[in-house]
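Hello forum,

I keep getting stuck at the same step: I have a sequence, I want structure tokens, and every attempt I make locally crashes halfway through. Rather than fight my setup again tonight, could one of you with a working pipeline run this one for me? It's a single chain of 228 residues.
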Amino acid sequence: MPSLGTACLCTYASYFSKDTNLLQSAGQIALVDTLIAILAGLMIFPAAFSVGVNPDSGPSLIFITLPNVFMQAFASMPVVGYVVSIMFYALLVFAALTSTISMHEIGTAFFTEKLSLPRRKSAWVVTIVAGIISVFCALSVGAYTDIQLLGKSLMDFCDGLTANFLLPTGAMLTCLLVGWYVPKQTVFDEFTSEGRLKGSLFDIYLFAVRFVCPICITLIFLHQLGIV
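Reply #2:
Ran it on my machine without issues. Output:
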């Protein structure tokens, strides 16, 4: 989820007013996103271990294992188990919606700005395409397990493609674009909100974007490929 939190900030930042403090907003989003992730881990992992479930079992952990965990944890109080389950999945829906809206906006903005489609039509195009893909992904781990790509279910394939390749590639291209292609003065103006904020850390930021981040992303990418 942290990566999606970053995507949310990058998406909505294009609509911020000039008076918005991007540094403060980024810090708040990173802090809240991290705290929520830690709290979720503190709840899910002990519960999974308590019933002998592998916590990295993927989508089945959320949709198959956790309901059983809740019911076993509240075996003496079934009503409480149902209430906890409903609350958990309600929060999961809100978490998914916030991330979905930010990612949805990227495609909508592309069709609107580059292809000159009306915003409503652009939103419908993205929604329909994403909906069709989502249906097949869901079916690949349900009623139609023979829907596979490269020996994996469509759900696992899309998840692996996105997490292991598309996100690192997008992050790398962003670093290269901001660090080496965009004029330094333009980056400085964005960093300082056109002079409204102090730019004392700009050199450190630019160095990290140009060198530190690409090296870290490359190492992560090589690790995903099993090379390091």
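The CA atoms of residues 9 and 183 lie 22 Å apart. If your local run keeps crashing, start a new thread with the error log.
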